[in-house]
């Protein structure tokens, strides 16, 4: 049975490897993507708990803010978004977030934490019941969303009698990767799940993911040795270029060719950077004769942000 599993598509080859793509961008809500998969679980919690307004955090590139603002608007729930002042150029995501009537507030990065606390306090004083969604849909609920995605991957393998030796994806907060790795650990599978960092560096980036995994698995009562955890955690920070939203011409070449060859839009902040990083890594590490799955984590509106530069 396929429930509403997102499609897995076979693309071409890189060296002697076959590349497949799991199209999370085709989740049928607000352009899909990993933020839509996470948000659906967060909103189940919001409805269950009778919360009546949402507070969250994210930059102007953020797919998370667009999806949350969309879901809040469709449920007529006021949505408050705290944005870091820096790196806040206008994107289609930020324009849609505005369109959905979210209350946006730009503050210097150092004030983000206090502003969120203050906003939550004020809303409670007004008799409201606010729900805070961490930036990017970070936390156990976000992790859970990608344990479910991992189960879809296993279903695909079973149904098509195939096996992915590697899974690659764009890693930001690392919650998506944490969910996939938790799935792998819970099922005792042997394979490599490699997060291509879009901004964070090691050891910090990796430690945040490790913490997400520990938190989720302890919730499930799953015992995990630190050694196994570290051996399962591949967080590659060699392809970040100059950081979040920054990229070089190689990434645009990749975006252009994936669109031309397969009709699949990638973007330079997340999926394009990760696909390009994967291409480099496969060649640099001489990976051969593998079935490799790339998770398309969404962000389609950002494709249009890049189009003048393609
Ligand atoms: C947020 C985002 C990511 C990163 O997801 P994390 O769970 O934060 O690591 C990757 N790709 C796209 C398109 C995103 O919007």
In words, what does this structure look like?
- The protein is α/β, with parallel strands linked by helices and 310 residues long.
- 45% of the residues lie in helices and 18% in strands.
- Strand 4, helix 3 and strand 5 (103-107) form a beta-alpha-beta unit.
- The chain starts with 7 loop residues before the first strand and ends with a helix.
- Pyridoxal-5'-phosphate binds at residues 33-35, 63-64, 136, 170-177, 270-271, 297-299.
Task: Give keywords.
alpha/beta; 310 residues; binds pyridoxal-5'-phosphate; 6-stranded mixed β-sheet; globular
Topology, pairings included?
Blueprint: E1 8-14, E2 17-23, H1 34-48, E3 53-57, H2 63-74, E4 79-84, H3 92-99, E5 103-107, H4 112-125, E6 130-133, H5 140-160, E7 166-171, H6 175-187, E8 192-197, H7 204-219, H8 226-232, E9 234-236, H9 249-262, H10 271-284, E10 291-296, H11 300-306
Parallel strand pairs: 2-10, 3-4, 3-6, 4-5, 7-8, 7-10, 8-9
Antiparallel strand pairs: 1-2
Helix pairs in contact: 1-2, 1-5, 2-3, 5-6, 6-7, 9-10
The protein binds pyridoxal-5'-phosphate.
Pyridoxal-5'-phosphate (PLP) binds at residues 33-35, 63-64, 136, 170-177, 270-271, 297-299.
């Amino acid at each position: 049975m396929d429930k509403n599993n997102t499609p897995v598509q076979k693309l071409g080859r890189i060296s002697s490897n076959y590349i497949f793509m799991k199209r999370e961008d085709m989740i049928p809500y607000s352009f899909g993507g990993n933020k839509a998969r996470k948000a659906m679980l967060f909103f189940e919690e919001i409805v269950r708990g009778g919360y009546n307004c949402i507070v969250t955090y994210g930059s102007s590139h953020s797919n998370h803010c667009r999806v949350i603002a969309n879901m809040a608007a469709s449920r007529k729930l006021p949505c408050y978004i705290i944005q870091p002042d820096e790196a806040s150029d206008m994107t289609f995501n930020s324009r849609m977030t505005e369109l959905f009537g979210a209350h946006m507030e730009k503050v210097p990065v150092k004030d983000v934490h206090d502003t969120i606390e203050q906003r939550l306090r004020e809303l409670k004083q007004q008799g409201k019941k606010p729900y805070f969604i961490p930036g990017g849909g970070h936390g156990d609920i976000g992790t859970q969303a990608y344990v479910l995605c991992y189960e879809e991957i296993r279903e695909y393998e079973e149904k098509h009698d195939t096996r992915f030796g590697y899974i690659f994806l764009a890693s930001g907060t690392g919650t998506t990767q944490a969910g996939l790795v938790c799935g792998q650990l819970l099922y005792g599978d042997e394979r490599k799940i490699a997060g291509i960092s879009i901004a964070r560096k090691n050891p910090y980036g990796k430690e945040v993911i490790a913490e997400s995994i520990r938190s989720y698995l302890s919730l499930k009562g799953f015992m995990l040795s630190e050694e196994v955890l570290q051996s399962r955690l591949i967080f590659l920070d060699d392809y970040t270029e100059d950081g979040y939203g920054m990229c070089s011409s190689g990434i645009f070449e990749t975006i252009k060719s994936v669109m031309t060859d397969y009709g699949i839009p990638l973007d330079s902040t997340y999926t394009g950077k990760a696909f390009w990083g994967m291409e480099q890594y496969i060649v640099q590490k001489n990976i051969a004769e593998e079935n490799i799955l790339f998770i398309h984590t969404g962000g389609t509106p950002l494709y249009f942000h890049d189009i003048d530069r393609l």
